[in-house]
């Protein structure tokens, strides 16, 4: 009985310590105030990832994520500072304090959740099917049977070939870059392109081509979020609230339509 009481006391002590640590962390979280005091929100990104964050012909960093972040910064009452970083070591840069957020098509996954906190998802970058608008015979994934499918080599090709529908296609034709796949689609040398949704919608909107997305048949889904340091809860909550407000008042939809021709922001 004595051993049970001792064990029970140890458990209560451990819980009490855990609560105290959490309360202390919350009490010392000045992440939002720190950003406001500095007058800027520093965003870390890979500046080659169109259309999320990339350099235009004049060398300026532009993109969907940049416009979204600029509006959030405006609502927080600070300036946005965009800082290109080595994306492969982005989490290290975040945790060292080099940047305040990682915001550049940052995929949410379980491994990263152990190292950073994520905002609510704001984009679902599905692997989707794009066809010519006049192809009335392709309206679902099942309609890809017997068709020639174009796909960029790498993870997209791997994801497509992992789907059973690829075994029923006439051919899976690999491409080094998506642009060449789209050129072959326009020339009717292939039947569809299998591609990330954000890249597809950006290409269609930018080039005003008669392509369309087969809406009801994504092959995979990949949610994007904003990365924060584990202790920066107040900043995370403030950014989430700003994004929620932008969803509600239509600003997020406006930015999405500018870059993708459609509102694809996760509600």
Overview of this structure, please?
The chain is an alpha/beta fold and 267 residues long. It has helices at 2-27, 31-38, 64-76, 90-96, 110-113, 155-162, 178-186, 197-207, 233-249, 251-260; strands at 40-45, 48-49, 53-55, 61-62, 79-84, 101-107, 117-118, 123-124, 127-132, 148-152, 171-175, 192-196, 211-213, 223-228. Strands 1, 5, 6, 7, 8 and 14 form a 6-stranded mixed sheet that branches. Strands 11-10-12-9-13 form a 5-stranded mixed sheet, with helices on both faces. A hairpin with a 5-residue loop joins β3 (53-55) and β4 (61-62). α2 packs across α9, α3 packs across α9 (233-249) and α3 packs antiparallel against α10. The longest helix has 26 residues, at 2-27. Residues 1-15 and 17-26 have low confidence and may be disordered.
Give the count of helical stretches: 10
Q: Percent of residues in beta strands?
A: 15-25%
The biggest sheet amounts to: 6 strands, mixed
Mind telling me the C-alpha Rg? 23 Å
* Secondary-structure element string: HHEEEEHEHEHEEEEHEHEHEEHH
State the helicity in percent bands: 40-55%
Number of beta-strand segments = 14
In round numbers, the mean pLDDT is 91
Spatial shape:
elongated
Give the low-confidence spans: 1-15, 17-26
Distance between the termini: 54 Å
Q: Indicate the structural class.
A: alpha/beta
Labels describing this entry:
267 residues; alpha/beta; 6-stranded mixed β-sheet; 5-stranded mixed β-sheet; 14 strands; elongated; disordered N terminus
Structure, briefly:
The chain has 267 residues and is α/β, with parallel strands linked by helices. Helices cover 42% and strands 22% of the residues.
């Amino acid at each position: 009985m004595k051993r049970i009481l001792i064990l029970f006391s140890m458990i209560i002590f451990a819980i009490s310590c855990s609560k105290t640590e959490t309360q202390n962390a919350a009490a010392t979280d000045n992440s939002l105030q720190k950003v406001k005091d500095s007058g800027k929100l520093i965003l870390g990104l890979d500046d080659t990832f169109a259309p999320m964050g990339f350099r235009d012909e004049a060398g300026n960093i532009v993109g969907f994520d940049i416009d979204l972040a600029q509006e959030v910064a405006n609502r927080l009452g600070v300036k946005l500072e965009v800082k290109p970083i080595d994306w492969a070591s982005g989490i290290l840069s975040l945790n060292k304090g080099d940047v305040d957020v990682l915001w550049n098509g940052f995929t949410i996954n379980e491994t990263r959740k152990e190292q950073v906190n994520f905002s609510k998802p704001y984009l679902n970058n599905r692997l989707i099917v794009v066809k010519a608008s006049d192809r009335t015979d392709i309206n679902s994934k099942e309609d890809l049977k017997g068709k020639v499918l174009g796909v960029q080599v790498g993870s997209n090709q791997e994801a497509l070939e992992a789907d059973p529908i690829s075994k029923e296609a006439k051919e899976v034709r690999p491409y080094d870059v998506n642009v060449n796949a789209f050129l072959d689609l326009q020339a009717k040398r292939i039947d569809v392109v299998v591609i990330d949704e954000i890249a597809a919608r950006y290409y269609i909107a930018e080039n005003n081509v008669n392509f369309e997305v087969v809406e009801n048949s994504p092959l995979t889904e990949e949610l994007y979020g904003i990365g924060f340091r584990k202790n920066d809860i107040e900043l995370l909550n403030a950014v989430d609230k700003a994004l929620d407000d932008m969803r509600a008042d239509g600003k997020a939809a406006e930015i999405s339509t500018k870059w993708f021709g459609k509102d694809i922001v996760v509600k």
